[in-house]
Amino acid sequence: MNLSKGFVLALVATLLVLSAMLIQPFLQYVLAAVLIAYLLYPLQIRLEAHVSPALAALSLVFVAVAGFVTPFVVILATVLESADRIPRDLDAEQGQLEGIETRIEELTGLEVDIVGALVGSGQEFGTIVFERSIQAIGTITFHLIGILLALFLVYYLLKDGDDLFDWLLRTVPLPTDVQHDLYDEIDDVMWGVLFGHVFVAIVQGVVAGIGFAATGVPNAVFWTAVMIVLAMVPLIGAIPVWGGAVVYLYLTGEPLLAVGLFVYSVVVVGLTDDYLRPFAVDRYAKLNPAVILLGILGGAYAFGIMGLFFGPVVLGALKATLRVGLENWSRIGGSDVR
Q1: Angle at CA of residue 141, ends 140 and 145, nearest 5°
Q2: Distance of CA 275 to CAs 69, 130, 229, Å?
Q3: Is the pTM of this model over 0.85?
Q4: What tens digit of pLDDT does each residue of 163-172 get?
Q5: Are 227 and 238 in contact (CB under 8 A)?
Q6: Coarse DSSP helix, strand, coil percentages of the chain, rounded to the nearest 5 percent
Q7: Ramachandran area for residue 220 (φ above 0: left; ψ -120 to 50: alpha; else beta)
């Protein structure tokens, strides 16, 4: 290696490290943008047959915003409604609290001020919330910047997706047909993880949530969200949640509902996992469940919430690279990679 090549390699390595440092604070949003753009890209291709790439990408950005903002608004409205109901509940119970104070004074001769104590505690809590809210302003600003960054990335990934792919074909020092083979296999892995774990988890969680709502389990929407996340993890799934709900119904004097929820969860919810997941994994990802479990858990620690998806994809991409690389090793070692 001559001095010029060594300098170029050192410069590339330095810039890669600096680039990673720049991306790291917003890694979750960058990964989310990549995932959203990947999901919407087939629609981008279809829309480009009728409108310009920029207009198609902009339209799909609005679709992405609506898909994320609408659920967030619904959840926020629910939280605000619950917060607004708390003062009314306290006002309704104040008469009962004053009666308890009078009864305690009659029995013990001690004057107590439960309402005053609650108000004082509320003031202290409000002070803490105010102090924390000052810190929260910076956090909210950071997340708003991250969301805007993700939307810009989605737009340009959709608009310039073809140019990016052509640049990869020109830049990566591998024969073009080998690159296509590698990218096709990684594409299968991504769709396998998306359909076999994300989509199936959503279906499984929603189906289980319907059972919760039908049997009167409290906070069914919250537990549905929890089951969707747990359903992405092989060997665990939604069983701990719906199993706990069955026990809850039994202990609260609803044995028939408990039995009904148990049968529904084992039969109906179980079918979504037993049939949809193997179909998707065998058809697309072709990954061993142990590898998927390692990817999900390791990805969650390495990349945060987006690691639930990208962890298995990284391991699947490693498998694809090893297979394609070994099958074409003699060609890769040649002087002409084109």
Answers
A1: 115
A2: 32, 50, 19
A3: no
A4: 888 888 888 8
A5: yes
A6: 90, 0, 10
A7: alpha
- Measured in degrees and rounded to the nearest 5, phi and psi for residue 159 equal -65, -40
Q: Which residue has the tokens 């310039």?
A: 160
Tens digit of each residue's pLDDT (9 = 90 or more) over 40-89 = 888 889 998 888 889 999 999 988 888 765 665 565 565 445 444 445 54
The span from the CA of 43 to the CA of 67, in Å, is 15
Q: State CA 19 to chain mean position distance.
A: 25
Q: CB of 164 within 8 A of CB of 41? A: no
**How many residues make up the chain in this entry?**
338
* Torsion 296-233-305-40 (CA) sign: positive
Place of tokens 């690159």: 179
CA dist 261 and 52 (Å) reads 51
